[in-house]
Amino acid sequence: MHWFFSELKRRGVFRVGAAYLATGWFLTEPISSLSQAFHLPPWLLTAALAALFAGFPILLVLAWLFEIKDGVIRRIEPRAALPESSPSPKGNFDRRLTAYTIIMVVLAACFFLAGFFFRDFNSEKSVDPARVSIAVLPFTDMSPERNQDYFAEGVAEEILNLLIRDSSLKVVGRTSAWAFKNRNEDIAAIRTVLKVSHVLEGGVRMANGMVRITVRLIDANTARNVWSEELTRPMTDIFALQDEIGRAVAQRLRGTFTPTQAAAAVSLAEAEAYDLMLAARQKMRIRTVPEMEAARDMLQRAVKLAPNSAPILTLLAESHLLLSNGGYFYGREPYAEAKAQAKALVDKAQAIDPSNSPSYYLMALAAPTTTGARAQLERALAIDPKDILSLNFMGIMYQSEGALDKALEAFNQVLSVDPLYLPTNMNLAYAYTALGHDAEAEAVMPRVQAVYGDLPLIRSSIELIKLLRGDIAGALAASRDAAANADGSLRNQAVLGAALLLLGERTQALGLAASEVERAVMSGQLDKAVDLARASFASRDRVQRADIALVGDALVRAGRGNDFLRLLGPLEAEDFAATLGGDLPMVLPGLVVALRAASRETEAAALLAVMRKRLNAIDALGRPEPYRAFLWAQLLALEGENAEALQRLEWAIDAGWKGQMNWPDRTYLYVSAVSTDPAQFPAFTQFRTQPDFARIRDKFWISLNAERAKAGLAIKR
Predict the structure, then answer these.
(1) I need a labelling partner for 658 at 20 to 30 A (CA). Which of 152, 259, 281, 400 fits?
(2) Cα 555 to Cα 550: distance, rounded to the nearest angstrom
(3) Model pTM score
(4) What is the rounded radius of gyration, in angstroms, for the C-alpha atoms of the chain?
(5) What is the DSSP string of 92-132?
(6) How do residues 678-707 score in pLDDT, each as one tens digit?
(7) Other Cβ atoms within 10 Å of 17 Cβ, number
């Protein structure tokens, strides 16, 4: 052994090995820095280290066999072949090698120390939690066939949901982060739009029962990697893997996220059910009936594989509701049956997991009263205060009660989490319009349009704002153009139908009606409409309030107020207003007329008091607005304030009222399936023979015919 070590020293193996290691250290430091600066894949540094280690034994063998002396490479003679007094092989090369080694060590040490100032090597430096925010971008599908996009997105969303639980982190909502999918925006652009300090991006590949996830946490201010990792696990460990990534990211950001317990491995059947759920969730977001039907089929298969999964049960319940013909939904299946199916599934989900906040949101969506819906939403938000679906719907509930200040507060809470969430941006624009804040309303949609582009949902929302502002011809032209370009948006269909109806084109609007009740009312088949709406009247279900509004309005205008009252049964003013919802739909003044005709003055006075209270509350928040002025005119006429009623009516028409209501819901776009002529509103019956009313009514028809002319329609009346 003594001979071996002395021979290593004589042949210079120690010198060459030290020089090689110093060179390797020196090279890995800039490679590490460059990989972060230029977002190079994490395997690059690993490959470089592997190559250096692989070359080390080869170099040692060469150093043992050969020497460089006086610029010549020659084989080293064994000690036995040399005279006893022969010196060790030395020369200028050895001295140069020693100097080179010292220089490499110094340079590598400098790079290493500099790294403490410019990169994060898991140091314990503190981060101000108030300044930490993160956007989780949709992960990339890394499968060769590119057919696992739904799975990649689903994994990213689950990690996002885990991070949202950390109260010390500001996590941008899914919609805003997903807006940057496939846009190739740089980190600086994402930081500017979303106002975040960090971005998490990654890729997913699933094959042969294994899932590989590559993640990279990026400092949005410097565009440098904070942390990157590639993890491969069996598909049965997918939940544990998502938890592991969530914990690692939160710890890097100095958050406090700690799951109550690590997620356990699941069976192959449960893993397959999870895969089906992610695919179904992506389809349901498209919001077309065929896609939602396909999603429901997937979820039914998933429930058979994982019967005790609360998220799958809840999503299946939602699919039943979305495919029903309820007022908020998209399909034609009977709402009562869908609601019963959804409730059974939600009850089971809540028994399995009482902390499943989406299940409470779902029950709020189908709750028969506004009060009941709000109670369910409060339970959901107690579990998850950042639940944007519940916050958005809470805003809608406040909006339906005329509490627009609370509605704006709820909508802004959503946008603080998910600034580009489309439904809330639309609701915000509608609320500003109802308050008469036109400039604020007009600024909302272009902001999201700049990010999303010309999406059908954005186009139809802009059309709807035109409609609410009195530009009926403009809304009609835009919605017709969208329909001609194969825009299958149900909202676009609603705007198109409403514009036609407001312009008096009932025959064309009839073909766009969403329900049998609407078609019966619009075609004058009131008895059929009554039969179709009996269940809605009996349940007073908030989701079916369109039936009550449309049928009730038509009955009162046809002189059949008693039929309306019989369908309603016992009446409590506050409860009835809550049932109808909305910014007091047109049917309420007609109901007052029906109550007075039946000598039920006390109930009529109570309804008028509710109407006045709500209008005063909105007036205190906003500026004068045509539809609200029209409601005031009806209220004042019913209270006997005739002169002021006519003044308000004239102002409303001068300001742009042509029959439209300030409300986004399809339920109220069909303001009246009978007529928008002021003379046809029951509250103004007493004015029909008065000259001032005739003059004001002429103004209405002049204004409406001007819109008809813009739309290429003939003069009417």
Answers:
(1) 400
(2) 9
(3) 0.76
(4) 35
(5) HHHHHHHHHHHHHHHHHHHHHHHHHHHS-SS------GGG-
(6) 999 999 999 999 999 999 999 999 999 999
(7) 17
